[in-house]
Write a structure and sequence with these properties.
flat; mainly beta; Immunoglobulin-like; 2 domains
Length: 252
């Protein structure tokens, strides 16, 4: 009798409002999985970037997304590797979306650096997002990368010109395997951060560039990174020294 009254109470509670609608599976309330996790090597560290999901599994806008957890595992030789083992991945970093602290932001991308790496080792990463109530997404796409010896960082100097800013830098001998592929030039506004994407890429044989696309009176900074191709992957050097330049009116 008690069970019957209990179930009748549930039915009455569900129908009391007089409205009917499709039931929503709890899984549909979970954030959608991150699909754009990526990793690249710059200097002796990896830069991991991702975009937090904006919709849940039912394709509805997310309102209470709290953060992202990034996990890392070391890839072992085939006879020893066990990705599905419970201890394979360890938490690398939790990104608090409200207080990202030292996490880099480039538009919708959140980026963090992983410097606790051993040269020659391969690492694999995945990420999950979570709501304020703890509801977690499925795993993101997985990415892996081997840490190799990067090329030597260039030494940069700047020469102001009436038509723009002229940059000159030293060539970068390789300190490991691979082939020098070119140079990435990064440009930003003074007092700003180095952008995520290079302003322009130059061939390996070129060590000079004139920037004519400046706003009059605008102040800019530049860094250059050498790029090598190692085992089919592009690897950046540490950044060069920073230099500053601006376009000025010609003196009378």
């Amino acid at each position: 009798m008690k069970k019957m009254l209990y179930y009748m109470g549930i039915i009455l509670a569900l129908t009391a409002c007089g409205k009917k609608g499709p039931l929503v599976s709890p899984d549909a309330l979970a954030p959608g999985p991150i699909a754009d996790l990526k990793v690249r090597q710059t200097g002796s560290r990896f830069l991991l970037c991702l975009s937090p999901p904006s919709r849940d599994e039912a394709k509805r806008p997310l309102k209470d997304l709290a953060g992202v957890r990034v996990f890392r595992r070391e890839v072992l030789p085939p006879s020893e590797d066990c990705e599905e083992c419970p201890t394979a991945y360890r938490l690398l970093r939790t990104i608090d979306l409200e207080y990202p602290n030292d996490i880099l932001r480039f538009g919708s991308l959140y980026c963090l650096a992983d410097a606790e790496l051993v040269p020659g080792n391969t690492y694999q990463y995945k990420a999950v997002s979570f709501q304020r109530d703890g509801t977690m997404s499925d795993d993101s796409n997985k990415v892996r990368r081997k840490l190799v010896t990067p090329p030597v960082a260039p030494v940069l100097k700047v020469v102001s010109a009436e038509s723009g800013v002229v940059l000159e830098w030293t060539g970068s001998p390789l300190s490991g395997q691979g082939v020098l592929a070119g140079f990435n030039i990064y440009r930003g506004r003074a007092q700003g951060d180095v952008p995520f994407d290079p302003f322009i890429t130059m061939p390996a044989a070129v060590t000079r560039y004139e920037d004519k696309s400046l706003e009059l009176g605008g102040k800019y900074f530049y860094v250059v990174k050498a790029v090598a191709r190692v085992d089919g992957e592009l690897v950046e050097s540490e950044p060069s020294n920073s230099v500053f330049g601006e376009l000025k009116l010609p003196e009378d």
